[in-house]
Amino acid sequence: LIPVLVNGMKYSEIDIILLKGDVEEDEAVPDSEQDIKPRFHKSRTGMVPYLPELIPHLIQSLSDKKALVRSIACWTLSRYAHWVVSQPPDSYLKPLMTELLKRILDSNKRVQEAACSSFATLEEEACTELVPYLSFILDTLVFAFGKYQHKNLLILYDAIGTLADSVGHHLNQPYIQKLMPPLIAKWNQLKDEDKDLFPLLEDFMIVALDLLSGLAEGLGGHVEQLVARSNIMTLLFQCMQDTMPEVRQSSFALLGDLTKACFLHVKPCI
């Protein structure tokens, strides 16, 4: 069985054509809408005794001249992110992160996608281990905004969101100053009905409510003057009666945040 499987792993000429493996640089080729689909990866460790030898080889493969090899190396390494993070940082995490960030800026879209997805997995496993490298990470992700097309932008947003979840408050000043301008620029480019709002907002009502919750939590008492100039309490009451449980959930969360931040506007509505 082993020889049959290993022999079958080799790409045929037809495979390479179908996978566009003969195209090395394609970042300027427009994305097709039907190409955009979710991908999920989980890490496995049936292989632990061999990883000290295998991981350096895979990291080296991230620089292979063939785009298909670079992309599959990204994906394979993401499967072992948990083990990488459990070792001393200088041994595997630092070289892996350095090479993955280079591949995020690859000139091939398939490699960009694989590297970004792989890095998101690494972020989930590494969490605050990434803090010493935040400046380098953000420089790369921000630069990718200027390179990526529609499909890979969705994955880039996910990687940025995962980074925020992973490092928490460590993303505050001065790092946040690097990240917000390109995000706000993307926001300002989009029309209200643009489908590209979905990765930024997921569902319009739910994330609009969550965005307001974030503002109330972040601004604290300073949000009072914004609430005073709006009819948010009336709208919030309507949202609390929405048919979707997720909308009602976000509505009550916002009520809690507004109660803490500016109770004087909540009190008349009780």
TrEMBL record:
The keyword Protein transport is assigned to this record: yes
Gene3D superfamilies referenced in this protein's UniProt entry, alphabetically: Leucine-rich Repeat Variant (1.25.10.10)
Database matches in InterPro entries: ARM-like, ARM-type_fold, HEAT, Importin_beta
Major localisation: cytoplasm
Record's subcellular location: Cytoplasm
Keyword Protein transport: yes
Record keywords, A-Z: Cytoplasm, Protein transport, Repeat, Transport
Name recorded for this polypeptide: Transportin-2
Organism field: Xenoophorus captivus
Gene that this sequence comes from: TNPO2_1
